[in-house]
Write a structure and sequence with these properties.
With 99 residues, the chain is mainly alpha-helical. It has one domain: Multidrug-efflux Transporter Regulator, Chain: A, Domain 2 (Orthogonal Bundle). It contains four helices and two strands; from the N terminus they run ααββαα. Strands 1-2 form a two-stranded antiparallel ribbon. The longest helix has 28 residues. The chain is globular. GO terms for molecular function: DNA binding; DNA-binding transcription factor activity. InterPro entries: DNA-bd_dom_put_sf, MerR-type_HTH_dom, MerR_fam. Keywords: DNA-binding, Repressor, Transcription, Transcription regulation. This is MerR HTH family regulatory protein. It holds the Pfam family MerR_1.
Length: 99
């Protein structure tokens, strides 16, 4: 796992890094745009990748997008990524390429 994906940052620190309020960050979680981990005590933990994602979300909101539109765009991006991986796998299998 990359250091960028380790969930170690508190919500307060994420708020300071992004300029977003704690409430905004929680709202984006409610809208299923961000997925922090929870400690046993229920504290949210974020990664550097999450911080980057939140900054991108904030920029898109500032540009006038709705959270539902952002979610749809992310879904399409994930679908394309999965499709590309499947096609690569099929091509590798067809041509006998092993990694």
């Amino acid at each position: 796992m990359s250091y960028k994906d380790r969930k170690v940052i508190s919500i307060g620190t994420v708020s300071e890094l992004t300029g977003l309020s704690v409430r905004q960050i929680r709202y984006y979680e409610e809208r299923k745009l961000i997925f922090p981990e929870r400690t046993k005590g229920g504290t949210r933990r974020y990664s550097f990748s999450d911080v980057e994602r939140l900054i991108n979300i904030a920029n898109q909101i500032e540009d006038g997008l709705q959270t539902s539109e952002i979610k749809k765009m992310e879904k399409r991006r994930e679908d394309r990524k999965l499709r590309d991986q499947m096609i690569r796998g099929q091509l590798n299998a067809a041509f006998g390429i092993r990694k």
